[in-house]
Automatic annotation (TrEMBL), chain A:
InterPro entries: Acyl_CoA_acyltransferase (IPR016181), FEMABX (IPR003447), PG_Glycine_Bridge_Synth (IPR050644). The keyword Acyltransferase applies. Keywords: Acyltransferase, Cell shape, Cell wall biogenesis/degradation, Peptidoglycan synthesis, Transferase. Pfam families: FemAB (PF02388). This is Peptidoglycan bridge formation glycyltransferase FemA/FemB family protein. The keyword Acyltransferase applies. Belongs to the FemABX family. Signal peptide: none annotated.
UniProtKB/TrEMBL annotation, chain B:
Residues 14-166 form the Alanine racemase N-terminal domain. SUPFAM superfamilies: PLP-binding barrel. This is Alanine racemase. It comes from Nocardioides bizhenqiangii. It comes from the Bacteria. It holds the Pfam family Ala_racemase_N. InterPro entries: Ala_racemase_N (IPR001608), PLP-binding_barrel (IPR029066).
Length: 379, 357
């Protein structure tokens, strides 16, 4: 039975470096991105003293009380295939309780269902289908179901995917597998073949129009941010400040680390010198994410967004990644819903929609937990 | 001369068809006393529904002993609701291909597959009712057992939910997740055999689990859902005028006032006066209370028989095949041979005749 101990950020990173991948939200660097949360690094150690699991815990304080929500976004990093999850989670909960947590929130990085691009396309076309769940999935994962079953058994509560906690991670994401069913890597040709005609056409068009994609440095974050603020105005969302991205960029590109666990890249697509699209990508081992994106309103027809995505996909493939992750989608397939455009854009890349087990809470102090839920509901 | 269930045939059959239409994949349940109709008659009706093109592939019976009653009158699959146990006596081997066993314990799964490797099985998962069924972890182990064999015939998972108390969908979702976790090898779409879901719950379930086939097991709602099509009557066998103080009956009770004694068909052999308990007490307790206290201490008790819409009193506890009623003077006295209405619990009553028009 693994035991738990507090470790340094370096020990945490060294352990993650031995794994094929982990969520970038569980890397030591991510703690620096969330300075308003107290953070802690934990490791599970087996009887032989080997580290077998790790967690980044973010503590969020309740207003005016010395009590915290302990949040482990897309974590912890443990053996989720175990059928004795209690052995892993019980010591975690005991420790967090000792640190003043009134509740624990985790996000098991475990897939529960998958759907193909063709299935989703069919679902959007079908007027009777309004939610992803109404389409028979390509796969219901037994391993994912076992995690869900055990969390219920252990008293954890599933949190609805939409609404609620602002920091909540999406339960549904869109991913392009970069390896084929037999685990051999895809090629650029086979990935292009998986895309729909429009995506292929747009990629070709950007090339013909002379769109050039380059990888920037930290100094180019200002250019990215200007375009991002422009995008935010156009698409009506609240932009984050430049400082946030500077901190993230530095945190996920650890200066001087011998074995950097994570890598963040800034991508810039220019047309005759004009910045038409800019994005941020993250990679932890074999998992690559598209993180933030911005695009100009002018010159949309040169297809800078498609060009920059394709450059990131190719880069992930070249780096040996097995998954290119386009991050969250909503589960709506209602053709009249404004969110459906996002899923349609992502579906065009081929790939598949993936449902994760979602976020789960364990109330420790039921009264405070209840109060916290009411507070969130009223916000 | 008999306790008779009279069925308005056209109306009843129309009801059966409407229920079958509204519940594609319906599994009619024919068990026990056949809801008053007898098992054989329900089996023929299920066959009739199937012959008329309704999606009825399987008939459910309660126990293995009931199989012979339905097997000759119905040509589809037969699902036995009571889980298989090692002490179940073997049945006609020619029915092996038609019978679907419910398996609710891991030990039984091993044993049944050893005895009958080609047995068709449904795995039962315990529900909040806590009657039969496997826990989540037993189900996972069952999945392992089944994955080790390549010739198994798994027909899905069964849930026996408590009678409607709020929404069942949360529970069904959790239990189905346990079944997914078991990763049992299946040939076609996984099937969920379930009872006591409302039509709305069933519809939502089908949306949430489009890859599952939901087969609702329906008994009462199907056979007894249109009470207006059913009428139960007893025959007046004898009428005796009595004066106050006259002695009568097995125990020489005396009449409290003048009136008539009516001897009517229907007694304990039919289930009259042996109402099954509906709630907290046991049959024994209720029968004892009835026999001891009821008649002697507070006078006569109400019978299920009514004349001109008024429920009449038992003059003494029901006999085996007939009952004595007391009719006070002033009431209309029916003639020998007249029919009077009886209110019964269909699942606890054996009728002498079932007349279907």
């Amino acid at each position: 039975m693994p035991s738990l101990r507090v470790v340094s950020a370096d020990e945490h990173r060294d352990y993650l470096a031995t794994l094929p991948t982990a969520s970038f939200l569980q890397t030591p660097g991510w703690a620096k991105v969330k300075p308003e949360w107290r953070s802690e690094h934990l490791a599970w150690v087996d009887d032989d003293g080997r580290t077998v699991g790790a967690a980044l815990v973010l503590y969020r304080q309740l207003p005016r009380l010395n009590r915290f929500l302990a949040y482990l976004p897309e974590g912890p990093v443990i053996d989720w295939s175990s059928d004795r999850l209690g052995d892993w989670l019980d010591p975690l909960v005991r420790h967090l309780k000792g640190e003043g947590a009134f509740a624990v929130r985790i996000g098991p990085p475990v897939v529960t269902r998958r759907w193909t691009a063709a299935q989703i396309k069919g679902g959007i076309a079908d007027a009777d289908v309004r939610r992803l769940g109404q389409i028979p999935p390509l796969e219901r994962s037994a391993a994912g179901a076992r995690v869900v079953s055990q969390l219920h058994e252990l008293g954890w509560r599933h949190q609805a995917a939409e609404g609620g906690f602002a920091a909540g991670q999406p339960q549904f994401v869109y991913q392009i597998p970069l390896v084929q069913a037999d685990r051999t890597p895809h090629t650029e040709e086979s990935l292009l073949k998986g895309m729909n005609q429009q995506w292929r056409r747009n990629i070709k068009k950007a090339d013909k129009e002379g769109v050039e994609v380059s990888v920037g440095t930290g100094a180019d974050l200002k250019a990215f941010h200007d375009l991002y603020v422009h995008t935010a105005e156009r698409d009506h969302f609240t932009p984050r400040p430049l400082r946030y991205f500077e901190v993230m960029y530095d945190a996920l590109n650890e200066e001087g680390a011998t074995e950097p666990v994570s890598e963040m890249k800034l991508w810039l697509a220019r047309h005759h010198g004009d910045l038409v699209a800019a994005t941020l990508s993250v990679r932890v081992g074999t998992h690559a994410w598209y993180s933030y994106g911005a695009s100009s309103t002018e010159k949309r027809d040169v297809r800078g967004s498609n060009a920059v995505q394709w450059a990131m996909i190719r880069d992930a493939l070249a780096a040996g990644a097995t998954v290119y992750d386009l991050r969250g989608i909503t589960d709506t397939l209602d053709a009249d819903d404004s969110h459906v455009g996002l899923i349609q854009f992502k579906v065009g890349t081929g790939g598949e929609a993936v449902e994760y087990a979602g976020e789960w809470d364990l109330p420790i102090n039921r009264v405070l937990y209840k109060a916290f839920q009411i507070y969130l509901a009223r916000r | 001369m008999s306790l008779t269930l009279t069925v308005d045939g056209p109306r009843w059959r129309a009801h059966l068809e409407s229920v079958a239409d509204a519940h594609p994949g319906i599994v009619p349940v024919a068990k026990g006393n056949g809801y008053g109709f007898t098992l054989g008659r329900l089996a023929r009706k299920a066959q009739w529904l199937r012959d008329r093109g309704h999606d009825v592939t399987t008939l459910a019976v309660g126990t293995y002993a009931e199989i012979p009653e339905v097997a000759t009158r119905w040509n589809g699959d037969i699902l036995v609701l009571t889980p298989w146990r090692p002490f179940v006596e073997p049945f006609d081997p020619t029915l092996t291909k038609r019978v679907i066993h419910t398996v609710s314990r891991l030990a039984d799964l091993d044993q049944l597959l050893t005895l009958a490797p080609t047995a068709r099985i449904v795995l039962e998962r315990t529900t909040s009712m806590q009657r039969h069924g496997m826990s989540a972890r037993e189900l996972w182990e069952a999945g392992e057992v089944l994955r080790r064999r390549d010739d198994i015939r798994l027909e899905g998972v069964a849930l026996h939910l408590p009678l409607a108390q709020g929404n069942h969908l949360g529970e069904v979702g959790r239990l189905l997740n346990d079944y997914v976790a078991a990763a049992v090898p299946e040939r076609g779409a996984p099937t969920l055999w379930v009872s006591h879901l409302t039509d709305g719950e069933l519809e939502t379930l089908r949306q949430q689990y489009p890859d599952f086939v939901a087969r609702p097991r329906i008994g009462t709602q199907l056979w007894l859902g249109d009470r207006g099509a059913l009428r139960v009557t007893a025959t007046v066998l004898d009428v005796h005028p009595v004066e106050r103080g006259d002695a009568f009956g097995y125990r020489a009770r005396t009449a409290p006032k003048s009136g008539h004694l009516l001897v009517v068909s229907g007694g304990t052999a039919h289930g009259i006066g042996l109402e099954a308990p509906t709630g907290e007490s046991t049959i024994k307790a209720r029968a004892a209370t009835f026999a001891r206290g009821g008649l002697d201490a507070v006078g006569f008790v109400r019978s299920p028989y009514s004349i001109d819409g008024k429920q009449r009193l038992f003059a003494e506890p029901p006999h085996m095949q007939a009952s004595m009623l007391f009719l006070p003077s002033g009431a209309r006295v029916p003639a020998v041979g007249d029919r009077i209405d009886v209110r019964v619990r269909y699942t606890a009553t054996t009728f002498d005749r079932v007349d279907i028009s």
